[in-house]
Amino acid sequence: MVPAQPAVTAPPATLAEPAPASARQPAVAATPQSVGVDTSTPTDVAGLGRLRAVGFIAPALVLIGVFLVFPALWTLYIGATNFRLTGVAARTPDFVGLDNYRRALSDPSFYRSLWLTLLFVFGSAVIGQNGLGFVFAWGLRGARRWVRRTAESLVLLAWILPSSVVAFLWIALLERDDGTLNELLGRAPGVPWLVRYPMLGIIVFNIWRGTAFSMMLYSAALSAVPPSHLETARLAGSSTAQTLRDVVLPHIRRYALSNTLLITLWTFNDFSPFLLTAGGPNHGSETTPVYIYNTAIVGGQMGYSGAISLLVLLINLLLALVYLRAARTSRRLSGG
User: Fold this and answer.
1) What is the pLDDT of the chain when averaged over all its residues?
2) What's the structural domain count of the chain?
């Protein structure tokens, strides 16, 4: 009989000693490069190639350079000279530095034209086109389709017609002897409307001509107002004024600021009043664009008119900055 062997027990497991610091390697996280992922920023999504891409935008750059950059630089140059249309100064103009700008800033005629321009912009664009465009958009919102289309077409017609055609129509309307308005009023002799009320005439003319843009923009803006909000305001018994103030205006505030900025800049530089009154009578409707034209072409003072043009550009930039600041403030208040 074989004696039983004692059971062999394994020695107790001992904890491994930690490796020295020099032997420990830091854990390296897997990176896109380590797994073969291309992280390079795509620079040619369309696959055109740099040369063909430059070829596509080259015509636009040429047009911008010829019709925007070059005239701006030329205006800056002649504004610092005594350049004229005729005479010795037309052939060899002298550099006068800031003399033209100092003359413009002390010229009462320039300030008069600037005041008339601000009056023209405020009356015809900020108040007239803005207000009438919104009234049309709000009033046609619930109209029948054919009524809305007909009204929009008539308003757009005044906008798309050439300025010369529109000016002729208004001259025929307001003419003293055989004008349509005097015939309708039965006045004999007739009233010379554009002579007696030149600023009022060009303000009403610009309102009639430019309302279409504001109407279209506000029509698009009003479509973004949730109908449920308008219905809630109606059920709560809100008046039309309260609905516009508390429901509609918060939704279209940005659109209103954008529209006001665009029509302000367009109207500030609008030359159409010249077609009606040529700045008269006695400079009574000579807005700044008309004053620049009369100074440069009629008076032949190209250098002086160039300085005034640059000042007008700076005023436009200032107006744009004011509107953009108001837009940012509105966006911050609305939490957008």
Assistant:
1) 84
2) 1
Does residue 279 fall inside a structural domain? yes
pTM above 0.85, yes or no: no
> Which pair of tokens denotes residue 29?
């996280």
Among 49-63, 116-130, 173-187, the range of highest mean pLDDT? 116-130
* H-helix or E-strand spanning residue 146: helix 145-160
Q: List pLDDT tens digits, range 287-313.
A: 999 999 999 999 999 999 999 999 999
| Residue 126 belongs to a domain | yes
Question: Is 266 domain-assigned?
Answer: yes
- Statement: residue 42 has pLDDT above 60: no
Give Cα 304 to chain centroid, integer Å.
28
pLDDT at position 22 is 46
Exposure string of 52-80, with b = 16+ CB inside 10 Å and e = fewer, is: eeeeeeeeeeeeeeeeeeeeeeebeebbb
Residues 195 and 181: their CA atoms lie apart, in Å, by: 14
Domain membership of residue 197 (yes or no) is: yes
Domain span holding position 196: 97-333
Q: Token match 């055109």: residue?
A: 48
